[in-house]
Description:
The complex is a heterodimer of chains A (864) and B (226).
Chain A lengths: L3 H39 L5 H7 L2 H25 L12 H30 L21 H10 L4 H18 L6 H4 L36 H14 L5 H5 L5 H4 L14 E5 L2 H12 L3 E9 L7 E8 L3 E5 L12 H4 L5 E4 L2 H12 L6 E3 H7 L7 H8 L20 H12 L1 H15 L1 H16 L12 H4 L8 H21 L3 H4 L2 H10 L4 H7 L5 H5 L1 H13 L9 H11 L8 H6 L10 E2 L3 E2 L4 H4 L13 H6 L19 H13 L3 H30 L22 H10 L2 H16 L11 H4 L2 H21 L7 H14 L9 H4 L14 H13 L1 H13 L1
Parallel strand pairs in A: 1-4, 2-5, 5-6
Antiparallel strand pairs in A: 2-3, 3-4, 7-8
Chain B lengths: L6 E2 L4 E3 L6 E2 L3 E4 L2 E4 L3 E9 L5 E8 L4 H4 L8 E9 L17 E9 L2 E12 L23 E7 L8 E4 L6 E4 L8 E5 L2 E4 L5 E3 L12 H8 L1
Subcellular location (chain A): Nucleus
Organism (chain A): Caenorhabditis brenneri (Nematode worm)
InterPro entries (chain A): 3'-5'_exonuclease_dom, Exosome-assoc_fac_Rrp6_N, HRDC-like_sf, HRDC_dom, HRDC_dom_sf, RNaseH-like_sf, RNaseH_sf, Rrp6-like
Amino acid sequence: MSEPEPDAAENAELTKKKIIIMRKRVEEVMRNGAALVRESNGLPKSGADFELYNSYPTFNSFMKKSEERLNALMAKVTKSIGCAMRVPDVGASVEHYTECVIEAQDNIAERVSTLHEVLKKAELDQIVKVPEFITKAAPTNRKTEAEISAAMKTFSANIGTVLAQKFREQREEAAQIVVLEKPQKTYSIGADNSAAPFASKLTVKHHAIEKRTGITLIDDDESGKRDWNRAETETEEEHPYIAEILHFKVPKDQMTPAEPIKFKKLDETTLTMVDTKEKLEALRDVLNNVKEFAVDLEHNDMRSYLGLSCLIQISTRDEDFIIDPFPIWDEIGILNDPFANPTILKVLHGSDNDVLWLQRDFGVHIVNLFDTYVAMKKLKFPKFNLAYLVSRFADVILDKQYQLADWRARPLSKAMINYAREDTHYLLYCYDMLREQLLKQNEQDLASMYSECTDVCVRVYKKPVFNPKGYMTEIKLRFALNSRQDYVLTNLYRWRDTVARAEDESPQFVLPNTMLLNISESLPRDIGSIYGCCNPLPLFVKKRVGDILKIVVQARDVKLEKIERTTKEKSDAQEARGVMNDSMDHITSILKSKIDFSHTKFDEERGEIEIDKTVEGNDTLLKDQQASLLSVLQGSAVPNSESMIVVEEGKSKNVKKVTKLLKELDKFVTPYECYQMMLITKQKQEEEERKEAEKKKLEEGDKPKTLFSHHDASVNRKPEFDSKLLNVDNVRVDPAEVKEQEEASVEADKEPPVFDPSRFSDDQLMSKKAMKRKRDAARRNIDVSIVFGESSSSDSKKKKTGDEEKEVEEFDYDKTDSSAFHNPVRDDNEEFDPFHQKFRVKRSKKNNSTKKSSNRQGSINYKK
Amino acid sequence: MIITGTLVAPGDKVLDSIGNYRMGNGLYEANRRIFASVAGYVKVYGHKDKSDNLVQVIEVRRSEDQLENELLPYDGAVVTAKVMAVGLRYRHFFILYLRDHSRFAKCDIISIGDRVYKKRFSALLPKKKLRPLEPELSEPFKNFVRPNDYILAKVCDDAGIKDKFVLSIAEDELGVVLCRGKFGETMKKVDWNTVVSTRTGKTEPRKMARVPQKCMLPSDLKDSTS
């Protein structure tokens, strides 16, 4: 108890001493600062003074030297503090210097505050870890890694931004790994991108079972031919190891439970990079002597048409191997020996593609496979990815950031190698655990799992076949195509495929789907607008823009039409995309959510949704009585109205009052009930009316209809023409025309024709032009008739005109009143102009007769 | 074949796949299977779509009657409503004219069919829907309905008004069923177009619904029972 006290006293003394020393130092700094200011005041001021001094070369050189020295000093000081400052170049402006100094000061203050915080935490007995302040060249806008990690540790509020920054940095890092030349070229790896069927690369067939020739078809004539045919088909379709895989029996030790063997730590296992033939042969020998090993492949399908295996990772119980396949591309086939060996177990995760890639690139076939993915599905895990598997069993969290990295890059970075190695390192232990769990669950499950894995093994690699209408399923069309757009789309789709095959690139790399759609939608007119459709510009669009332009120009000659897709095509496309749009309705649209995978065929979390198609046909109501809610519904009966009465506690039911109230309520008729009653009575009335009408009808019998209305069905009646009506028509027509018609009618009387034009008026028969011509002719005829005084027709109108003529002839001028002519002519249309010749003349005349009247007249005219 | 008329509860599987049927009400789809979302009877009926093709629609209904299946006022439902106000809109514009140029009567739907709800639906009775196919009137509501009247009306579809239910009384059977006078007294029917006050004997024009006048106000009920 007495010991710590002197310690504390000592500590107090020490701190006191320290404080004194610190004070002294601060005082010294202050004194020096004041001296500095005094000295600097003695220097010549900027402006004319400084200019004058500056003209002396000695002063100038001295100033330059001192500036350099100051620069160096500043850099040194900031570095020693721990926040190096980017010192401006010699000769920079004063503003630049001050800016830099302020920045440096800010950094220093920041660092002091962080250190202060850390120290505070240290007082509270927390773990002290002074964040390492790594400054690269100079403090820039980018936060340093240390800062980020510090922020991550303190869980600052804006952790999202920090994470985003981290990701961005990683992406930048990934972008730095650039593959300058395709490995296919450097290592001369040939790929057959032609449409020819895939030929197996298998050279030596290891572990082959002798074919039993006992069961052969005996056909004397064509047996030879048949055999030859079969040999050919074997290369393109049949799996070379089909017999072996089908005869494969799972070794007994794989079916019996055993203690799981814990994986070795990463540091303790040796990693061998296999990149020469000798190393590969050594690896083969190693693999031949083990009982099981784990395999994984890294693949790149962006920069080659068929895809390229970039890395093979193999793990045994004791060692890890990473094969760089590029330098020893053709030799890897020797690994077929352990891979095809049915007594050696190969453990893979999600082996569907790996099996095919091994076949395609190296001619390696797998017999005896354990797929952890299938096993996880059998065990109904919540997730099926490798990261989950490893974290569950090995308790290691895998960093999956390199999953989509460009694995063609050489040399591989340490992180990438580490990632590749971890992919297989824990797999064997996971296999042990899965096997035990499967055996525990049901022994049959393990057997069925192996049978599923053999199904995977049997798969044969086939080259992708170009489908000219493939864009229907591959690309999601966001607009309805017209014929031109369709033309461009089809041709560009084909062009893309041919270019991809020729250049050994993936079609997506040649021209991504979005850009393909962009071009076919906008139909660009020139190269510039083609470039505009593609951002960022793909390499081959730039190289071969002429081809694209040609296609687009050709499309402009196609007749513009709308293309209707058949419903089958649409549904096929939708089916291929795994979307069921046709069954989308009101309810499903509500229920649909982005995290709901039920509308797609595949759910990455749950795996494939099993839909048994056998049941789909019959529409029977399959109801599980126990699961249904019906039992609940049926159990509950509607309670009696009296039993529903709620009574206050302690009081008995007043049944009489209640029944009275209910009766009263029953008496009350709601308006709707009235309405219903009315409807019923109305229906009855209508029925009665109908019955009465029917009765009447029966009584009256079938009388011919006399009254018609527009509701009646139209009756075809023959056209009736009234001769009088025809005459009325003629009255309006000119006399010459009438004459013609009369002549026609005379002719008609003589021999009745089938078609009688006289029955119809002219405007019904003739065209407009013909009518006009006829009218003109008629006018000419009228003139003639007037001149000759022809009045052959009995037309009343004609007679009238004749009478009028006579009256005009007999007109007596003496009888008429001539005074009217003395009055001036009132022309409404003409405006009054006092200086007009006409009026002047009139005025002078009127002046002669009566002055007053003329004046009045003039004024009136003026008013008008 | 589907057994029509089978009783199903929510969550019961009705079909394994929709097949050639069209989804109707009371069903939902999950994992390509069809389930019932309400308790009721399965029903299949033919329905002509826009292109005049006959399609088989499958539905789960509570009963044959449409009224039973719908919860909200639907197009064509006969409702009982109370006229709350006449001419709330645009009234201030026409204050100088002293005449009622209102275009709407504001109503509250009390019950749809026979069902009474806790809350009332607000609805509009436009002046166009007062009588069938006749020119518009200058003082539309004066001769038809007044505030605090209880009316029988039909919910109808109006392209112009989307935010409220639109009512119509343009039928003989629809119109005023209950009305009160100035002093809260009951007005009795004289003929289908006039009512008379039981207290003052004043007559007022109304468009009465041609239904048996059996519904009474609570006060009258008391009188009749006592």
